[in-house]
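**Folding the chain**
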Amino acid sequence: MNDQQLLRYSRHILLDEIGIEGQQRLLNSKTLIIGLGGLGSPASLYLAASGVGRLTLCDHDTVDMSNLQRQIAHHSNAVGTNKVDSACATLRSINPEIDCVPLAIRADAARLHELIAAHDVVLDCSDNFDTRYAINRACHALHKPLVSGAAIQFSGQASVFDFRKMDAPCYNCLYPEDSLAQELRCATTGVFAPLVGIIGTLQAAEALKLLLGIDTGLSGRLLTVAALDMRIRDMKLSRDPSCSVCGKP
């Protein structure tokens, strides 16, 4: 680490749990963020500012005027451009030292497998069940830790599925793929702007701890936030033996 980096990351380095060695681990790490909307925006901002060496951003969508109410990585002059290009420009303005890789694609199962294999931690900041299930399956198969988040209306949640642990539950244990869970979309139901900031920032915090090797996070737990009355709940998650993804054969 050079003198400029020592100054930039000095408040991390002062923390006993991080120090110079931990900050160097962040600088050497590779993180994949899937979805650069309401959750991916704050998550990516904090990971970039914290010095995560390579951030790969994956999102096929473009910036729309309606996104600007909550997707804080994007600015008014970015409307109509690819979200990943818009976000990378913002992240580089915050921290020009990071390597930001924009992928303006909708990744299929094969491409997801390839991308996830090349990264240390994956953040699922997507907004639909199909993508979440595909990411969950790939992370489980590759034993990569997954930081999951979701937010709609005034309700949000975050969890970590650390597939480096043999007994870790997975997203499918929480919401089985064959269930009749209703999928709500911001376009039709709305979402409270600060809520996605809360959940996305939680995802960034969990990702940083995973990269640092700090084992006191949301692995095996689900944190829910009800922003309307600001009630935060924490519950334990257990592996479902009959889960079609991680259950015992």
